[in-house]
Amino acid sequence: MNMMSEAAVEKALDKKMNDISYKMIGKDVSVYYGEKRALYDVNLNVRENTVTALIGPSGCGKSTFLRTLNRMNDTIDGCRVTGRITLDTDDIYDPNIDVVELRARVGMVFQKPNPFPKSIYENVAYGPRIHGLAKSKSDMDAIVEKSLQKAGLWNEVKDRLHEGGTGLSGGQQQRLCIARAVAVSPEVILMDEPCSALDPIATAKVEELIHELRANFTIVIVTHSMQQAARVSQRTAMFHLGNLVEENDTDKMFTNPDDQRTQDYIMGRFG
Amino acid sequence: MSQVSTSPSMATLGVSAKPERRDIGLRRRYAAERRFRLFGMAAIAFGLLFLFLLLFSVVSKGYTAFQQSMITIPVEFSEQVIDKNNERATNPQKLVSANYPVVARNALAKVLGVAEDDRAGLKAVNGMISDSVRTQFRDMVVANPAIIGTTQTVTFLAHGDLDSAFKGQIDLSVAENNRKISDKQVGWMNTLVESGALSKHFNTGLFVNGASSRPEAAGLGVAVVGSLYMMLIVLVLSLPIGVAASIYLEEFAPKNRFTDLIEVNINNLAAVPSIVYGLLGLAVFVNFAGFPRSAALVGGLVLTLMTLPTIIIATRAALKAVPPSIRSAALGLGASKMQTVFHHVLPLAMPGILTGTIIGLAHALGETAPLLLIGMVAFVADIPGTPLDPSTALPVQIYMWANEAERAFVERTSGAIMVLLIFLILMNVGAILLRRRFERRW
Amino acid sequence: MSISLLLLVVAVIGAVGYFIGSWRANALAGGKLSSLHSRPGYYGSFVALWAILPAVVVVFVWVIASPIYVNSTIRAGFPEEVKAEPQATQNLNYNMISAIARGFKVLTAEEREALFKDGAAARDVLASKGVPVAAEPAPYMLKSADDLNRMTNTSSTLLSILAIVVATAGAFLSYRSIAPKFRARNRVEGMMLVGLIAASSIAILTTVGIVASMFTEAVHFFNMVPAWEFFFGTVWDPRFAAAGATASAGQFGLIPLLAGTLYIGFVAMLVAVPVGLFAAIYMSEYASRHVRSVAKPLLEVLAGIPTIVYGFFALVTVGPFLRDISAQLNGLVTGNYSNFIQAQSVLTAGFVMGIMLIPYVSSLSDDIITAVPRALRDGSLGLGATRSETIKRVILPAALPGIVGALLMTASRAVGETMIVVLAAGVAARMQLNPFEPMTTVTVKIVNQLTGDLEFTSPQTLVAFALGITLFFITLCLNIYALYIVRKYREQYE
Q1: What transmembrane ranges does the database entry give (chain C) (predicted)?
Q2: Which of B333, B362, C299, C471 is the most buried (most CB within 10 A)?
Q3: Which one of C189, C206, C295 has the shortest CB-CB distance to B48?
């Protein structure tokens, strides 16, 4: 029983291959800022319950791609997106898709911690409140507590929930922002260089958190640091000059990439 | 868990199942969104509507002021009326004090066929002629006494009421004794129009005449000259002082209590009600220093003090916008601080400074309240020769005319407002062009 | 020598100083400019400044001091019986003397001699030369006038000599100090710096002038009318005093004026705040760049229109319109076609002032709203908030302190606004609550009390300064507080 036939192994692998399910699929995605083209026909799929890291030198389009995933680019004047991006089975650029609903399903955490100038409690409660997710005060209390726990911040702030969120340290603020995103119970969380403004200890905490969040959420993270990509992600996509150069398992990417440019970038020859 | 998409292009890929859709109150929230947006558009529409109404109200009432009804008829400068006893050789005063309105009246009566003994008729004829013929004919005769006894074709101003009637501003359906012009006069008016004797001319008087109690003869000449003097004074004083003060505060001043005080002070001065500057001018320049009341000089000084904070604030912003790298570059080459500022920073900031100055000047040009207090509300008929002579200003003239009861003054007031607005538009367009032409992005 | 000619001469000396200064520096350098501390132009400027500045100061002081000295000497020479007269009569006499003195200048010497022999003809002779004299001059006046002319002549000559000597001495001494190692540039720049500092103290001087001038006049007023009667009086009735009868003071109660000011300001804010705020929100959060580039400048045109134009608009358009529409409404409801809104009313003035204030509210709030960091906006939108939710729940709360500051600044403008209320609010100082009736304001009364004849000794004139200083302090407090709030707000996001 503890021996498996060759065929059985094959079958199990096949099954695993078939089990891969894609949360978001980007097909021929191009982005223009006015006359300037920022992304060239990117085809990138995001696997469910996986951390996908987007790496590449600055200005390569990785953040731009991230922002197309929950249509944050809509808020920029003169920005145009072509191609097709789906979330589950929905084309998110379809006119019938509502951007508010989309963003409730695809949350976002930004580069600089940006807590609202409100109390910690109100910061976390903001999303559930606007979406009407809590039926009662006790419901809301539960959501806030759960979200702060998921963000690993509960023990640090449970005694001062009604103090200002801007009074926290940088790392705590960023975890508060993650808790804020988590409170809406999105399916996907986008993170745009979430640790770039943090010190190493705070960074370690956030990375640990990302690792844990993977169980419940699909995560896409843009990062500057290749070490970070290696630490937190299972899949990595490398961007260069608005093109997707390579997308691969993180392990393979950092040991034996298919593309010469990826190799050069990882070896530190440019970037 | 996994499920093959129905979409053919995705057929090869496993796509995750779509979770159950949550109700996040979209319908209600979008209604609120639309409402909110509508309020915003309504607010802007409200503001623009009133901008339009204001301009429309002024222009519709005022555009007629640029034309004035004039009567052109042969006028007999009858010796009988002007100088019955032939005294003009010995008493030149005679020609000055002669009864010229009668000359005009008789001429018009002749054209209209009113008998010389029809007193009521003559009175009605007189009501069609502006009293300004007195000075007009006097000047003609004094300049050339030889025309006495001859008949000349002269163009002179029609009475303000006739002017209003001719422009269709008097409602002729009102009972005759409730309006300023009788049916008989309207009839004559039509005759005169048919014969071409009564016609509208471009109203040069509006721009060259001084104050007059007759609307048809009142003009903006004094006000325009007065405003011009004041603008010159403001420009000459406030630009150099404002720029010097800004340079000190922005480039040299140490950060201490005193400069902090100046800083707060300037910001507050910019917000002090303009009427307070009028009180200052009255107490300091007129009462204490003994400058003449109603003079453009005092007005200019008051407006200078009022404009200075605006110019200083604009200049400091312009200086601040010059990047520090320019200063470092100059200092690094061994230029002194003073040389750096005057050779590099100031020229680069100049477009911003000039734009701010023009806007400050435009503001000063439209300012009324302080000028009322220093006595520029005066009846000044003669164009002031120097800034020390009594004068008025454009906005003050508007104020005075706005307080006049006669209908024809409403037209003139609106016309004056149009002149003022045109000046302001020109200045602002100048400022915008300057900014466009020299705008620099660092 | 006239003052302008004298200043010209001093300027010429300065210019000459500049050239010889630069020439001297060049000569000292002997073709090797690097041996000089400063460029030759600075040596020239140094000499020129030393030639001009002290001389100009001398001229300035002299021009102020000399008439005072001459005036007092002439007055000291008045006959005893004239000196016994009241000050006002003496002033009149002095004015006559200076008129005669002016007249003397246009007469020939013989004519003047003739006048001294026959004083009675003086008035006619002077009038024939185009110099009017108020009354027949007393004999001592002719002599005083002659003295006056002589003294001003002497003074002018002395001044000319002194100024030229000072200018030349300054040029000479500074020329002497020129040496290759002399730091001319530092000296010149030091003097320039003093000039810059002087320019910036004008701001302080203006404030001091405002406070001091209004304060002294207001103190005169409070000597005649007790301060508490002014500040707490509820009746405004400053009956115009008969000429000279300063005792017949009326009642100077500030309260009704203040009530009108605040009421009209309140109505104006009621119009301006919602409209301005929503306009600002729409501009900064919703409008496309194209719409903004058209609508924003157009709204700002409202701020560039002089207030007198708004006043006229209120007087001839809005006021009559409200009056007529109220009559129509009344007629529809009660059948009685009489208007219940007066053409001049709190509503008319407040409404038009509100329109004037829209651009202030909107541009100040626009600045404040755009100062809210984009990150907060993105944070909220990224959570799936709609734009209006983001504005209402994140941006406005974050911008609130700044907006309050902006509204206080706007309120101070409403309080100090003059021309609209002068034309549209009415002149009756009444205390009542009906917005359809006229009320009056502090600024209207300042204008009313100061147009026409002024008598700086009567409370009817001086009360304007008491009103002015009240107005000044109200707006000052509003502004200082507003600036403080806004400054704190900006620091929060910088």
Answers
A1: 6-25, 46-70, 158-178, 190-215, 262-281, 301-321, 341-361, 394-415, 462-486
A2: C471
A3: C295
